[in-house]
Amino acid sequence: MPMITTLHRGAAALFTTAALCHCLPAQAVILSEVRADAGGRWVELQNRGTTSVNLSQWSLHYATFTPGWPQSYWWPFPAGTTLQPGAFLRVNWYQSAPTGNATPGVLWTGTSPYDFLFGLGGEPLQASRGAFGLLNSQNNLLMNTPSVVVDWLSWGDHGTPREWMAIQQGLWSTNRQTAAIPAGSSLARDPELLATAAFQDLQWFLDNSPTPNGPNVTGAVVQAYGTPCALPGNHLLGQPTLTTTALPLLGSASFGYSIGNTTGIYGEFAVIGFSAGAAPSGAPSILPPYVGTPCHEAIDVFQLVVTWLVPTQILATDVPLSLANLPPSAVGVALHAQALVLDLLPNTFPPYQGLTNAVRVVIGQ
């Protein structure tokens, strides 16, 4: 855990990536959000492509761990179901449609065994653990064929029926799952992480403000600025860089920072500082002077609200900063971060190895 070395009273409430990417293959229709409480039990899809997609022969597969039950259920999308580019589709799971319901973008599975494929019926959507698969088939003969799996989500646990198919397709990873879904929240997908998250479960975050039939990301900002530098004689693996591991979204447990090109074997530490603003033009540096180096702080060091001291790791140093328990008032809060890699060994000169770029984030919802 990071060591808090400086704390500003106004920031106290706020402060309570990987080399291998298991990325989502290019595709149009994805699972986007899941809610499972008294406020709604539904799964949402989105068409992120540029053309409409006919779902008439597609199905949703819901997997459970319920003892004595089939644990695998398939619901067929009705004939004529088409998802337009950019559109969302919400499926209310194991619920009957209200009389006269014809809400655009909303479907209801029903609760009769005849509403589901293969006569297996269904189960109510459970928040504690389960899995959804999106399949481009309704053919019984293909339901053990990995190639029909288009997308997958496991929450609360792993190892549900047919999860192996998603793993084989590269749509999920072994022994991985997201968190369970708390009441009042949903599991929402961060679209910015579809091609960059280290594991598929890290594309998802707990959203304290569910957004059925709407985008999951509102107001989040990640902006890099400034220039990284490394001193002559450093033992870094390259210029130190600062990035975020996810978008800064309210409720995201996977948010954090990553300091790239750290060595992690020479006893280095990193100090990551958070400031209320960027350094004004012409501001003096507080770093020990070293002839010939352009290292200069990009954040305003005179507005620091908190600094953390963390031991470096091999290749990259992750600095987790969960946003899961922040109050709604945190939305819109902006912070500027920058990291300094240094040696704490006695008689070491220069006393630091390098300085990262800066990153400005604004918390969204």
Q: In words, what does this structure look like?
A:
There is one protein chain. With 365 residues, the protein is mainly β. It folds into 2 domains: 29-207, Immunoglobulin-like; 220-362, Immunoglobulin-like. The protein has 1 helix and 22 strands. Strands 1, 14, 15, 18, 19, 21 and 22 form a 7-stranded antiparallel beta sheet that branches. Strands 9-8-3-2-12-13 form a 6-stranded mixed beta sheet, with no helix packed on it. Residues 1-26 have low confidence and may be disordered.
Fill in the keyword field for this structure:
Immunoglobulin-like; 2 domains; mainly beta; 365 residues; 22 strands; elongated; 6-stranded mixed beta sheet; 7-stranded antiparallel beta sheet; disordered N terminus
What are the SSEs and their pairings?
Blueprint: E1 3-7, E2 29-37, E3 40-47, E4 53-54, E5 59-63, E6 72-76, E7 82-83, E8 88-92, E9 106-108, E10 130-135, E11 149-155, H1 163-168, E12 186-189, E13 204-207, E14 221-225, E15 229-230, E16 241-244, E17 256-262, E18 268-275, E19 304-311, E20 315-320, E21 334-343, E22 352-362
Parallel strand pairs: 8-9
Antiparallel strand pairs: 1-19, 2-3, 2-12, 3-8, 4-7, 5-6, 5-10, 10-11, 12-13, 14-22, 15-22, 16-17, 17-20, 18-19, 18-21, 21-22
